[in-house]
UniProtKB/TrEMBL annotation:
Residues 1-20 form the signal peptide. It comes from Pseudohalocynthiibacter aestuariivivens. Residues 337-392 form the Peptidoglycan binding-like domain. It comes from the Bacteria. This is Lytic murein transglycosylase.
């Protein structure tokens, strides 16, 4: 589901070696031997298993890619401006026209708005142009052998074996992202098994070459992750200067009716249904862009774990459906990497759960920042500032 550096976001909060519950590590040859034994015990023929693993190799480049996550330290404004280019906007509109009947079917059968899939299609692979050149099986084996997250990747190897036996996976020639995702919207083998759709009616699920297959499969997966049909996901808003900032953030919800009574208004058009629950999202604090995040926004985090990626993808989807460029306003300057790590260390020392001390302003760090802002009597908008750092 997540191409190249974007793939890293999925794994920021997954189990480490200490939590691994499946075999990993040791010599790679012994590891492959054990994988083959398990595959046979699962009912696969020895001949198929031998052919499937015959060219298995450990790929050091996969580990290097896994460790490259600096992009997620960018602010929402910097990240969104970097990835939402005019070219992607133009190609998005062209693809919306070209595959209009496919999107009509997506909306009819799964209730997923076309902008949502167009944005993923753009951010993951530039509408299919850049799908990754890592050998998929070797990527999955390398990450299964590595003891940080074998629980995630080992099942994907056996899913790929099942696809191979269906003649839908070539262990030698199938290529994709470093983390094992395949195709235009980047899906892992297990996701393909569970959600693959033959959208073009040729009898195959071809996520690398068929936009219809890729888009319908992505929509089916989103629905399986909890997408609520024909509901909004994100909307830019204006907020009053006297809003209770401690009630903002994804960890706080109110009905749209309540937010409207508190002075929240749509920047363009109207707000969603009055009975929908929603959160006021301030990705760069009370002086930056402001959004209302509806229930479907939470599904984005099932696709990707990075706050900045998710917010950008959701906002991009609204742009592709006609929303204006957000009002950036004048947020307080972001902390440097060293300052952010220092802040996370101080928050952790106070018993706040920030996840990893990695310099990334994720959901846990935001919640910890907001809690300390409340304690110190600062505007509790979850945006870390030098003032907060100094007060701690």
């Amino acid at each position: 589901m997540r191409l190249s550096v974007f793939a890293a976001a999925l794994f920021l909060s997954l189990p480490s070696v200490a939590l691994a519950s499946v075999p990993c590590g040791g010599s790679f040859g012994s590891f492959i031997s054990n994988m083959k034994t398990e595959a046979v015990s699962r009912g696969h023929s020895r001949a198929n298993v031998d052919r499937f693993f015959s060219n298995a190799r450990r790929d050091p480049a996969v580990i290097r890619a896994d460790n490259a996550q600096g992009v997620f330290k960018k602010t929402f404004i910097d990240f969104s401006r970097a990835v939402i280019s005019q070219n992607r906007m133009t190609n998005g509109r062209r693809n919306a026209e070209r595959y209009d009947t496919v999107f009509d079917r997506v909306e009819r059968e799964y209730g997923v708005s076309r902008g949502v899939l167009l944005a993923f299609w753009a951010l993951e692979t530039d509408y299919g142009a850049v799908q990754g050149d890592f050998n998929t099986l070797n990527s999955l084996l390398t990450l299964s052998h590595d003891c940080r997250r074998p629980d995630l990747f080992r099942p994907q190897v056996f899913a790929a074996l099942e696809l191979y036996e269906r003649d839908d996976f070539d262990p030698v020639n199938t290529k994709g992202a470093w983390a094992g995702e395949i195709g235009m919207v980047q899906m892992l083998p297990k996701d393909i098994l569970e959600n693959g759709v033959d959208g073009d009616g040729d009898g195959r699920v071809s996520l690398k070459t068929s936009p219809a297959d890729a888009l319908l499969s992505g929509a089916r997966m989103l629905r399986g992750l909890g997408w609520r049909a024909n509901e909004p996901w994100l909307q830019e808003i204006t907020v009053p200067s006297n809003l209770d900032w401690s009630q903002t953030g994804l960890n706080h919800e109110r009905s749209v009716r309540e937010w409207a009574r508190m002075g929240v208004a749509a920047r363009s058009g109207g707000l969603g249904s009055a009975n929908l629950n929603a959160s006021v999202l301030l990705p760069m604090g009370r002086n930056g862009p402001a959004f209302l995040a509806y229930p479907n926004f939470s599904v984005y985090f099932e696709w990707n774990k990075s706050f900045v990626y998710v917010t950008t993808a959701a906002y991009f989807a609204t742009r592709l459906e006609g929303a204006p460029v957000y009002d950036a306003r004048t947020p307080s300057p972001a902390l440097s990497d060293a300052q952010m790590r220092n802040l996370q260390s101080k928050l952790a020392a106070r018993g706040r759960d920030v996840g990893a001390i990695d310099g990334i302003l994720g959901a846990k760090t935001r919640a910890a920042v907001q809690a300390e802002q409340v304690r110190l009597g600062l505007p509790a908008d979850a945006w870390p500032t030098t003032e907060l750092l100094n007060r701690l």
